[in-house]
Amino acid sequence: MPAVSKGDGMRGLAVFISDIRNCKSKEAEIKRINKELANIRSKFKGDKALDGYSKKKYVCKLLFIFLLGHDIDFGHMEAVNLLSSNKYTEKQIGYLFISVLVNSNSELIRLINNAIKNDLSSRNPTFMCLALHCIANVGSREMAEAFASEIPRILVAGDTMDSVKQSAALCLLRLYKTSPDLVLMGEWTSRVVHLLNDQHMGVVTAAISLITCLSQKNPDEFKTCVSLAVSRLSRIVSSASTDLQDYTYYFVPAPWLSCKLLRLLQCYPPPEDGAVKGRLVECLETILNKAQEPPKSKKVQHSNAKNAILFEAISLIIHYDSEPNLLVRACNQLGQFLQHRETNLRYLALESMCTLASSEFSHEAVKTHIETVINALKTERDVSVRQRAADLLYAMCDRSNAKQIVAEMLSYLETADYSIREEMVLKVAILAEKYAVDYSWYVDTILNLIRIAGDYVSEEVWYRVIQIVINRDDVQGYAAKTVFEALQAPACHENMVKVGGYILGEFGNLIAGDPRSSPLVQFNLLHSKFHLCSVPTRALLLSAYIKFINLFPETKATIQEVLRCDSQIRNSDVELQQRAVEYLKLSSIASTDVLATVLEEMPPFPERESSILAKLKKKKGPGTVSVTDLEDSKREGGELNGGGERGPDTAAMAASNASTPSPSADLLGIRSAAPVGAAPASAGSLLVDVFSEAGPAAPSAAVNDDGFLRDLEQPTETCDSLLVEGSGDSDSAPPSEDPAPPLPEADELLNKFVCKNNGVLFENQLLQIGIKSEYRQNLGRMYLFYGNKTSVQFASFTTTVSYPGELQSHILFVQSCSCMFRNQYTSENWDTACYSTSPIFAH
């Protein structure tokens, strides 16, 4: 950069800045600025042409005023004129003003681009650098379109000076980040990669930033950079601090370049060439060895530079995950930082060890530091470090140390920061389920979790313990006894009441033999919490009460009295009122056998992956819970828990009889549909819709004044559930004239209509018949839907309804066919694919 002459001091600018600083108030400053703006405007519009020095001075003043926070709406053209000057200081101020004040959509961009082109072709290195800096600072798409093909040529040209190459590399990196579709390396790729061999370390440092960014998007095109990066890294690592004097920072040779080289290598797998890989391993070992050497300086800059290279080297070792010796050495090296006086180093060590814990080669080495990590969890002052310690405990946990880690995390929960409590609860729940060796320990852990941090226990956690208890006969009695004891605490969290109501309602009979937990004692204990709970929990308790009537007939009178009181049957909440009325009526009119059938025990839940892992991953963000964690949970957690997650709505306390799913498609959309008129499900919707096929759901009927069901949903002739997709072409061979046999389940389909108004009535390989019905007082209406399961159109399809006995005079028969069938291969519409018939009759 040329030296600034003594006459370029711009005394007028210095005086103006001094005046602004001496202003006693904001009003005085604004007044001085307005006076100066008026003076500059008059100079620019005056008849006398300004020389370069005056333009530069006034443009500098405008720039200073803008930096003070004031809007500038003139002077742009004078700044553009400065670009054509041959003086460095004038051109520099012009480019500076444009970089700061000119909008990328400005009308002056074309003029600016012409000036930049002139400077790039001038071969003056100073002017070229100014132009490249301006392009990088503005970074507009227009500039990328104008110069994206020109800058790579400047970068790789043999006669380009080193300072210009550095600017060109960084300018191209900026354009690639803003407009990657316009920066196409193509023929320049190999020559850009070979800049890693440049003799000038500044060029290499700038080029590697560009190559790293390009490699992340197009790794195959730049894979040749691996061997060059290893070679350059080897030369830096093996050199002494005196070999690279211009690039040695506090006795550490080229620390920034070393970090960038290590980061570039993390974009690729381990080198396939044995010689390159051996050289890289040697470099990594040298870095680890140098980290153990006594420091050459007590300055913090020296240790920061050494540690920066060390942590990048460890990140590369973890990325490769193929050298057991290096992984163990890295773990031991990080272990030394766990008790370092620098908080940042402790944080980085814990964070890196979290990743090391997932490697099969270093997992055991990480476990040796468990006591230090537990101590960090308890004593660290910085909450972020404590959170990393909790993450590391979670990552290093296995069957050998699960009880110790879970106990420590539970102990820490009592005093943990509120910001990390929910995450800690999820981790404790996952570890307790994943590594439990006996179910009593798992139940105790979750109940302690609710007791300690009940406000942070999400629904997924207590749903999960319910599922596991229901699916395991050997833990049900213990769970009932433990939760009964937990409910006796004076201050009991509402989540504990939910778990207690659910488990005692299902398995309270297992502990009823003890006088201390007799049926009436259980009921009184639950009911003592009733008035302190929210509406969903009260709804759950009402469901538990009706379960008690089935389990303990001697409590029937007491429970009916509770259900009959005005606070229940006249409750302002519709859900509670409906449950109280229905349960009271059910307990009054139903026989013992019917009651036992309706209120039978929950069947085992289907095996599904726990939703707690998904919730933790969502909370921590993408990539936090690894795929390995999920697979381990499915493999190991599946051995413990036969049951899976039904989800918040389907985990309700319901005695549903799940039917075997049909192997054929549900063309009418009836099987999976919820009962018509179903009310929205809620957390308190328990013991409901016991005949639903899709699992527990919300109550499907509401009691009105006449005691009849609410109106059912009116089926429409063009509803989506009747739109089906064909599985073949229209030219497919017609089906055989012999009627196809019904599916094995077809004979059982009729039984469900004892308690249901809609579903699949008949099904075979050719046809599916669905039914929907509704009733009001003495009137009823029934809809029959015929689904074509073949890939061809039915010809001459007719329906016949017989009228048994005296019903002939009471039935009105209506037939309609208005649905379309779309062939998924040819996208042509087929008519008469689905029929509906609607007999209307009176009782």
Automatic annotation (TrEMBL):
The annotated regions of Low complexity compositional bias extend over: 650-665
Q: Which UniProt keywords apply?
A: Coated pit, Endocytosis, Membrane, Protein transport, Transport
Kindly list the places in or outside the cell where this protein is found, as annotated in its UniProt entry.
Membrane, Coated pit
Got a GO cellular component term for this one? AP-2 adaptor complex
List the signal peptide residues: none
Give me the residues that bind a 1,2-diacyl-sn-glycero-3-phospho-(1D-myo-inositol-3,4,5-trisphosphate), please.
Answer: 11-12, 43, 53, 57-61
* Record protein name field: Clathrin adaptor alpha/beta/gamma-adaptin appendage Ig-like subdomain domain-containing protein
Q: How does the protein associate with the membrane?
A: Peripheral membrane protein
Clathrin adaptor alpha/beta/gamma-adaptin appendage Ig-like subdomain domain boundaries: 751-842
Q: Where is this region: Disordered?
A: 622-666, 721-745
Q: Name one GO biological process term.
A: endocytosis
Is Membrane one of the keywords?
Answer: yes
The UniProt family comment states:
Belongs to the adaptor complexes large subunit family.
Q: Which domain of life is it from?
A: Eukaryota
Using the UniProt record, give the first listed, main subcellular location: membrane
Coiled-coil zones: none
